[in-house]
Amino acid sequence: MTQSANNAAKAAKTFLTPEIADYCELHCSPESETLAALTAFTMENRSDFAVNLSGRSVGQLLRLLVGLSGAKRILDVGTFTGYSALSLAEGAIADARVISIDANPMSKELAQPFLAQSPHGHKVELVTAFVQDWLPLQPDASFDFIFLDADKHRYPQYLTECWRLLSAGGVLIADNILWGGHVVSEHPPTRAIAVDAFNKAASSLPDATAVCLPLRDGVMLLRKSA
Ligand SMILES: C[S@@+](CC[C@H](N)C(=O)[O-])C[C@H]1O[C@@H](n2cnc3c(N)ncnc32)[C@H](O)[C@@H]1O
Q1: What's the predicted TM-score (pTM) here?
Q2: What is the Å distance from ligand 1's center to 12 Cα?
Q3: Ligand 1 centre and the CA of 84: distance in Å?
Q4: Using one digit for the tens of pLDDT, what is the confidence trace for 3-59?
Q5: I need a labelling partner for 63 at 20 to 30 A (CA). Which of 75, 122, 172, 200 fits?
Q6: Do 106 and 163 meet the contact criterion of CB atoms below 8 Å apart?
Q7: How far is the CA of 80 from the centre of ligand 1 (A)?
């Protein structure tokens, strides 16, 4: 590649400013009334942790992909106040089942009223358990679609387990895989090191197609070979 072509390629990769990120978020489909209410509730009552919400762009991506995949058995790893669980339920086919798991019992209490308000909430089952204990108990190939959004320092371990649990042709999506950009820091924090290890392992899976997207805090899309 010539120097100018190289510079053009680099420039094209580095235009992702906070303004562009906000623009992209605003130009995704609007949230359902229930997701908007859940977001407002979380901002008001769990403001210290509101950054945990996967939010409009990732939520709409989940909704779109789960619908396209036709998945019936869906796993949401990390409930928090239920944003991703409800986004998945909204996009999923009528007889799909979404299992959403969180170690914090408060997640169930917080998410349940919003699920009850939604015409898709009945698809979701909330489970209180530690992911690292619960995943190994599930049979091989028991899910068609998995969204991973729990403790980042265990992402490499969760990749191994989730890959075992995913059916052939299934989809695994992981959030926060750029960890605020620290995956390319000279001295990355522990979580960025774990997330980077996850990204390296995910993109090297021989039976996967992997796409690493700079959407919000970074999203890894994986499809297991059929
Ligand atoms: C980033 S939040 C999930 C956000 C959620 N997906 C959403 O869209 O709003 C991560 C959640 O994972 C849960 N969590 C963290 N480590 C866990 C573990 N080892 N087992 C189960 N849940 C865990 C936390 O309690 C927290 O609610």
Answers
A1: 0.94
A2: 34
A3: 11
A4: 655 555 555 556 788 899 899 999 999 999 999 999 999 999 998 888 899 999 999
A5: 200
A6: no
A7: 5
